[in-house]
Design brief:
95 residues, mainly alpha, DNA-binding, single chain, globular
Amino acid sequence: MPRGRVATYGQVARLAGLAGQARIVGYALAALPQGTSLPWHRVVNALGGISQRAEGPYGHIQRARLEKERVSFDGRGRIPLERFRWRPGAGRASL
DNA sequence: ATAGTGACTGGAA
DNA sequence: CTTCCAGCCACTA
């Protein structure tokens, strides 16, 4: 997962061999400690937006981090997945 | 052991 | 385009 690229829960789940179990990915991320080195902020829902649980400071932090990663949001607070979706193997195709 | 909930997804209306 | 319904598995009570 390089910077400036995001992945959906479903995508991560599939890559983890958990096809269809996106919720488990979300649950796993929810259980992550604060000081984790995992790029949890690059994981978004299928709409390319920040998910519910992030109603606290996390949503703001995640969005801020993504913007800092050159990831842009649209007027509805959603990311154009067509443009920022991480393609394993395709790598640096658009950047 | 069952029942309910959850950082979700995809198809149908 | 948006909203609703069903499926999926792990964790908690």
